Amino acid sequence: MREDFLHFIWKHKKIPIANLISTTNEAIEIVKVGTHNYFAGPDFFNSQIRIGNQLWAGNVEIHIKASDWYAHNHELDANYANVILHVVWEEDTAIYRKDNIPIPTLELKTYLPEELVLSYEKLFSKSGKSFINCEKQIEDVAAFTLRNWLDRLYFERLEDKSKLILKLLEDSKNNWEEVLFVMLLKNFGLKINGDAFLSLAQHVNIAVIRKIGGNTMQLESLLFGLSGLLDESNDDIFFKELKKEYQYVKLKFQCTGDGVLKPAFFKLRPPNFPTIRLSQFSNLYSGQHNLFSKLIEATTLEEMYSIFSVDASVYWDTHYTFGKESKKSKKKLTKKFIDLLIINTVLPLKFCYAHHHGKPIDEVLIAIISDIKKEENTIIHKFDALKVSVSNAMESQSILQLYNEYCTKNKCLQCAIGNRLLKGND
User: Fold this and answer.
1) 250 in the same domain as 280
2) Which of 2, 170, 184, 231 is deepest in the core (most CB within 10 A)?
3) What's the domain of life for this entry (predicted)?
């Protein structure tokens, strides 16, 4: 038995609410269950409970065992002074306030329908080989319920991604252009080099980027140099040119790479080598003036594809690393990579910017991300196998949010799918 299951029972009145009796034989009538509190303090605020002939207004606290009240030291906490009802699975001891006045207690185990307990046990009886708790039941959930929940999860995921943006905005004193620079550079590094590229971005003064942004060579040399990619000796001509340019820019603008994490090459496919990604990033910034304004004003996927249509510098047409020639090919940002930039950088930034200025943008974001192909990964494939169809990037983002924030954390009782499976058809 879990405490959040008892919260679910109380919140949705999953007990026969007529003829409830306290453990001291007083009649209990639930007038208002109250507002569910997910933070510190009593579990439900502003409840209204009639106990005997008296209507009480206050808070409700829920525990597995009544003695948990003392185990959690609630009798010493002023936040619990206004608890009007203690709801427990089992009353193993009487509970008193600090002034020795008893707190009325409702014991749930005598009222809970057996079929609800069985549904709960079925939902949480995942074997070690199971993917998610509800994998044998999710197909029974109505498509309308599932789609509405996935729509909500996409915006929940946007809000989670907004946390870093809002922190960067605070650190930069509301410099949106700087936030874009940091977020874009971070996401150019993908998972393996994301942290390294983030540390690089946070060591670069945006004022310096504005001054040298139109010069690809200088910008590329600065990013390569601060990343430690020019530290070694190399007889390659382009390497020497970049290193010379870096020494000039470093001295002129008093830049330092101290504390910047060195990017990795290991386990990466050559197109994702940091050399290629930093060059592509440099060409994006040198080729696009007012990049932030363009991305904020873009309302279609085609506009964004046009903005991100950039190559690495010519040298990289025949190289992936310094001094080692490869088969000639343009190192252009692929549509799949641009999609990731749009999903993880542009749309969260547009979401934050619009909300910061009080402008509605949800429909624009939905239109854009619904045009992007779904992501392909193990999690999406496993949901496909459970007959949860995923047709675009909005739905794949929602599925990732569902899996990472609910399924893996056993938050089935906070999930619309788990709620529906426990509620049945009521």
Assistant:
1) yes
2) 184
3) Bacteria
Element (H, E) at 275: helix 274-287
DSSP letter at 46? E
Please name every residue paired with 83 in a beta bridge, in sequence order, or none if there are none.
59
What is the token pair recorded at 161? 């991604």
Q: Are residues 394 and 313 in the same domain?
A: no
Based on the fold, state whether residues 24 and 106 are members of the same structural domain. Answer: yes
**pLDDT at residue 317 greater than cutoff 90:** yes
Give the separation between CA 406 and CA 418, rounded to whole angstroms: 10
Same domain assignment for residues 223 and 343 = yes
User: Which residues are CB-contacts of 396 (< 8 A; sequence separation ≥ 6)?
Assistant: 374, 375, 380, 390
User: Do 331 and 407 share a domain, yes or no?
Assistant: no
Q: Show the tokens assigned to 90.
A: 């089992």
Residue with tokens 């008893």: 102
**What is the spatial distance between Cα 205 and Cα 284, in angstroms, rounded to a whole number?**
18
Same domain, yes or no, for 184 and 333? Answer: yes
The two beta strands, 54-65 and 83-90, are parallel
177 and 202 part of one domain: yes
Exposure letters 362-379 (e unless 16+ CB within 10 A, then b):
eebbbebbeebebbeeeb
What number of other Cβ atoms are within 10 A of residue 141's Cβ? 18
pLDDT in tens, 119-138: 888 888 766 678 999 998 99
Looking at the structure, tell me whether residues 92 and 128 fall in a common domain: no
Total structural domains within the chain: 3
